Amino acid sequence: MKIRIGTRKSKLALWQANFVADQLKKHFPDLEVELVKITTKGDKILDVPLAKVGGKGLFVKEIEEAMLRNEIDIAVHSLKDVPTYFPEGLGLVAITKREDPRDAFLSVKYSSLKELPEGAIVGTSSLRRKVQLKINRPDLQIKDLRGNVDTRIRKLEEGQYDAVILAYAGLKRLGLENKVKQVFSPDFMIPAVAQGFLGIEARLDDENTRKIVSVLNDEESEIRATAERAFLKTLEGGCQVPLAGYSEIKNGKLTLTGFVSDLEGKTIFKDFIEGSPAEAEDLGIELAERILQAGAKKVLDAIYKGQ
């Protein structure tokens, strides 16, 4: 049996694909795994913020098309980059155990956000991060930052930015924790929906592949991702909206915190819900509906209209 994994060519994407390949081989020593490298639109457009060029689907469309043409069997994605709607015939078949979902602060000169001088330049292309930074440090200059992890760190070290904010999960996976000066608690900066999960996508009618890949599914991660993605889907959010959602399971209860704001961080909606893990999807939908009714619908409509 052979499984072909479709992957982007970045270091992080290749790490993720190799990680899944290694895990599969541990469970099935006779399995042959091949990596098929694919360039996506998001890899080609590096000088424009994601919010302006179409958001989430940028990193998955070409890979999904290759899967539908039967050129690959599965794709390994950072789940935060995966839209909540799939092309007909494709879907998520496994979600791996969550890596640390928090955001990390990197700087050459400064050891924390608090230490940054007034007017310091911080790099991030995420609207979610921009808004949450503005709430806490309205004096900072926040500038767009694109490129893979190495490129972003190089730009920081060249002095183009005083600090940059990146996902801690990606840095840990690439062995770059030593570059991190501060990790923000989820209370201070709510993570992106599904940050830290790897999602494995396959053709839904490919029973053999689905059965093999299902061994990598982590039940708690599936529950948490389901709640967060239901929240996102109900808000119809993407990279064009400052939006965050973070879940935890503690003492048998699933908790979910949601956040939406306007582009300037002046009008903020934040709410929290708790319930049974068995109701993950319903809880995500309910929290989103609450936030919409509180006034977020008007804010989101204005953002979409302005694009």
How far apart the termini lie comes to 47 Å
- Give the CATH level 1 class of the largest domain: Alpha Beta
CATH superfamily membership of the largest domain, which one?
Periplasmic binding protein-like II
**Which structural class matches the secondary elements?**
alpha/beta
Give me the CATH fold name of the largest domain: D-Maltodextrin-Binding Protein, domain 2
Reported CATH architecture of the largest domain: 3-Layer(aba) Sandwich
How do the helices and strands follow one another from N- to C-terminus? EHEHHHEEEEHEHEHEEHHEEEH
Question: Main sheet: which strands, in order across?
Answer: 2-1-3-10-4
Overall description:
The chain is an alpha/beta fold. The protein folds into 3 domains: 1-96 and 197-217, D-Maltodextrin-Binding Protein, domain 2 (3-Layer(aba) Sandwich), CATH 3.40.190.10; 103-183, D-Maltodextrin-Binding Protein, domain 2 (3-Layer(aba) Sandwich), CATH 3.40.190.10; 218-307, Porphobilinogen deaminase, C-terminal domain (Double Stranded RNA Binding Domain, 2-Layer Sandwich). Helices cover 35% and strands 24% of the residues. The chain has 10 helices and 13 strands. The chain has helices spanning 11-27, 41-44, 50-53, 61-68, 127-136, 149-157, 168-173, 207-213, 219-235, 280-305, and strands at residues 2-7, 32-37, 74-78, 90-95, 103-106, 121-123, 141-143, 163-167, 180-183, 198-203, 243-250, 253-261, 268-275. A 5-stranded mixed sheet has the order 2-1-3-10-4, with helices on both faces. The chain has a 5-stranded mixed sheet with strand order 7-6-8-5-9, sandwiched between helices. α1 links the parallel β1 (2-7) and β2 (32-37). α9 (219-235) runs parallel beside α10 (280-305). The longest helix has 26 residues, at 280-305.
